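Much of our argument rests on the idea that a fold can be written as discrete symbols. In the encoding step, the backbone of a single protein was reduced to a row of integers, each denoting a local shape. This step matters because it turns folding into a mapping between discrete strings. For completeness, the protein is quoted in full, as a sequence line and a line of structure tokens:
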Amino acid sequence: MWKKLTEALPPVGLVVDTKIDDAAGARNEQKLKRNGNLWFVPDGSTYVYYEPTHWRTAA
């Protein structure tokens, strides 16, 4: 079940499924982990330039 970031944040460092879902549609679906206000790929090597709008526990 997808959660809005405006309603709940995932724990820092936990890899979760993320996406942007707005008026333009769903896109940028990928696994990321949060560290403060930045979102990183699972191995922590790179952060993404955007903030997802939704997240859920990774399968």
User: Anything to note?
Assistant: The longest strand covers residues 25-35. The chain has a mean pLDDT of 96.
